[in-house]
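@channel anyone free to eyeball this complex?
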Amino acid sequence: MSHDCGVIICDFLITDMPSSAVFASGTAKRTAEYQKKRAEEEPDFPRKNKRVKPPDHPLTASEWKSLKLTTPNPDRFDVRMMSSMLADGTDINVAKSLLAYVAMDTGTLSYELLLRYLTLCVGSGHHSEVFDMYDIMRSRFRTLDTGASSLFIKGFSRTERWKEALTILENIKRAITPSPRNYGDTIAGAVLHGDGDTAWALYAELMEKGLIPNQETWQALFQCGLSHQGHEDGLQSILLHMRDNQIYPEETLAKDIKAWFESLPEQKWIGSWSTVDPRGVCRSCQAELESIQLSREEYAQLKDRVMGDVIQGRDVFNKTTPEELESFKNFVKRKPAFDVVIDGLNVANIGIKGNQSQTLLEVVSELERQGLVILVLGRKHMQRPSRSWDRHDMSLVQQKAHCFFTDNISEDDPFLLYATLHSGNHCNFVSRDLMRDHKACLPDGATRRLFFKWQRGHQLVLSSYTPGKRVRFQRILSYDTIVQTHGGSWHIPYDENGAERCTYEVPQKWLCLTKAK
Amino acid sequence: MYHQTIEMMRFLTPPLLNELRRRLSLLSTVANKQLPLTCLLPPHHSAPLKRPLYTGATLRKDVPLPQSKEDQTEEKLDLDIWKSVMRFQVPAVEEEKQGGEEGGGGAAPSGPGGGVAGQEEVSPLEATRELVVMWRQAGKLVPEIMTDEELGILAEFQTKSSKKKYLKYLAIKEGHKNNHKQKQEKKKAERSERFLEDDRIRPGGVRGEEGELRNTFLLQFWGRSLDKLLGWRSAQAVVFGQPLVFDMSYEQQMTRREVENTVSQLMEVEGWNRRAPDPFHLHFCNLQPDGGYHRELVKRYGAEAWERLLITSTEQRHVDLFPRDDLVYLTADSPNVLRTFDNSKVYIVGSMVDRSIQSGLSLANAKRLKLNTARLPLDDFLQWETGAKNLTLDQMIRILLTLKESGRWEEALEHVPKRKHDGFYQEKPQQDRDRGSDKDRRFSGRTRGDTGFRAGDRERAFSRRASVLKSGDRAIRNGDREGDSDKEIRTGDRGDSDRAVRTGDRGDSDRAVRTGDRDGMEEERGSTSRHKDSVFSSRDTVAVRNGDKERGSTGRHKDSVFSSRDTVAVSKEAAGDAENRQNTQTTTRVRTSLKTKMEDRNSTAKSGKKLRKEE
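replying in thread with the prediction:
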């Protein structure tokens, strides 16, 4: 976790460690693991294992009986036994022998037990069993619950009786909106049996209901496109949907996308796995990717929304007061446009405790040396000299930068956003805060993504800070990580298998698709 | 071998399958019963003996292929016996199930949908009911009985998870209710048994027949009499009592369940207040007649009881009812700490339950109306580093009632749940605390000051309070400084020069205490006794006046107290040096506490663990 090699880009001293940048995928996971390792773990007391151990071969009724008698807690023995079979993935015959024993013993089987058995059947792909279960449960019970219905949909869609899954889906709709997985399973069933039209109709219905489709569903549709021609527009619209919603495909889906493009006749697509260099050029096809900078309209839109939704919010009194907001607006108006806005408290608290003002001063000095117009935002209590807020340091900060101190009970982040956005597209801000709470204040997904894009392009994050050494910032990527196309080419960032990405991180790997000349 | 032959027989005669199956199980139980005998042998001997069934199976696998296939089908038949069991039982069980369901449904008749039995025409409510029934069968946490109202609420939820959560909540609630009922019945049974026992031992003893009076010389104190007493007290509070406002303007911020919880807490609030020796005059402000609060209140109290309740509920805002300067909004997010409970102020508590934390809501409201805000001095008295500092409404009223009665924070904050903090700060002698070693900077820095809870002062204050309280004088209870100056004024009536001397005295002694100067302390003690005398004399006059003409005199008395308080303010300014210093100390103290708060906040990187309290 060291940051020693530095590269100067756009006037900032920046460490060249893209893998550890805050927005790079996996950083949060790594940090969490690192910290977990550091904090000496208390020995984990193994939880008392209350599960019953399923046998490894079918038992006779008498054997089941004796097993039941020997368990410490014979309560709900059958259901618990079936659950542990589920967890262990036991052979289906063992489960059958249990059912036979229970049926002979009590004369009937409970819904709960059957449901678990059904899960086992569907999980291990015993289709004929699923059919039998369907007949039994339909005749035995008036309706099926959502769990059983979902299982039957999943089970049926893999077989030649896949059309019955559609009826079950209709049944679910009477009580509840089916889950995206229900739709996904049905679509997969239709695709498997070559009925592309039904699959696409279901997909349209799924989208219409405002559900978020699973990646497996898309995978099924791309596979459908692979085996049957047509629906090119639909598949392209899926890619655009990913772009609009800032969704990144997983590696398996990316492979299917690649295969589908390459299978298109007479278009001669060539797909390759690629990465992007820091300047924003695809290492495979040398094409330049979209810039992280917002267009003029996007910027204006974002500015409006942030002003309205984040700073004022539903209740301006929640974060500040109208008077304070007004005085801040006037302050910003009076001053020249800033080049960089610093979240004073956030930056100051990066260093050692009790030395806050010095940390802040060092950061301000570094930026001032680069000849930037700086605004430092703080709270009023910072102005009162104390052990952590040295009078001398603070007066130096005020000489080097413009300062605005909010009331101690106001939130300072909204002011930071306002000042940065107000100063124009060139203005950056310094904070370690990921601004997720403010992002969440924005009402619609589109603005949220715009905000995230702007944030990635304008947020300077301090790398590890050691007092006395030169202050370094993490690199700001110059390109936007999003599904993008130029007619003749597609660039699709995807999640590697096994890479655990947090919502505010972006993937590092790309699928590059170009048309052969 | 014995088993095998039977199995072969069964295999050869499929139509007799069931019959033989039964016998087989019988036989296997016989085999089981033999097992104990075999167990007498060493374990490695018993193991092969236990096996025959399975070794038999492997043996059969050795025979030529076609037969082994048949064998497998035979085994499958064996395993699938439950299917035929289920199929054969279908009709009977179906009927039984329907019957059981209708019995279980109880309050909710299954209606025409039950007859149609899941055919095309099913109303959404019916579909929801079916869903609930099936979820119950699938072993989900679902209540046994649901009213139509609850079903309606359930049907309104959009997502599956919200439905599940609601059902879980209902199921848990039902469980509690049933447990309670069972417990009560058990108790009742025990009691009646005990009575029977009593009767057997001493027939016609102390306890007579049901409803008959106990033969005793003690007067029965009926619950009715207590109600009447408390009722009069509440009525008195409505006329003369200190107002306490509950701000009912948070309906928009709460879910339905949170509103229900709020109303439960409000009912407790009313109960605590009614039973208190000196109740508040409760005001439910901003109470919209068609809003959720009102609906719940009427539902829980019953329309009649709600109308009879001795509280003031109004649509008006608190700022329209009371002068703005008198209002103090109590909110956990306030930067100001409530040091002394002021009987002339009207405190406002926000009636809100936020299960998902919504910080700053009540502070925002107070800011909007430009009201004074304050939070309880929880950090000064309780070791309470992290964790939400929000309290429930009933805890809040108990704290306020105790405070009003005794003025002691230590006593009042006993009502804060023990689980939330690590106990009170240890009491220390005044001098130690005030010298303020760096170690307990935080503690001394906060408790020292104008509040009058300095150990030396306190005892005096309370002895005085105890004597004065009975006369019904409210102003004295305002806290020590107020009391002190009050006293000065009253004594001052007798001679201006006297007062001048006393104020000087007090300043001196204050300083003395703070510096820990022994001489000063002695001096103070001297002056204390003088103070005491004067207080007693003033009390005497009050008592006389009270005896005179009750209501009028109290009123007059109150007036005089209020006016005297005005003069207090003047005299306070005049008191000069000592007083000013105290003030500056107050402000810095607030700042320090705020600073530490800010630092905490920043260091936890806005992790959301903000110090807060929504009353």
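from a first look: The longest strand of chain A covers residues 509-515.
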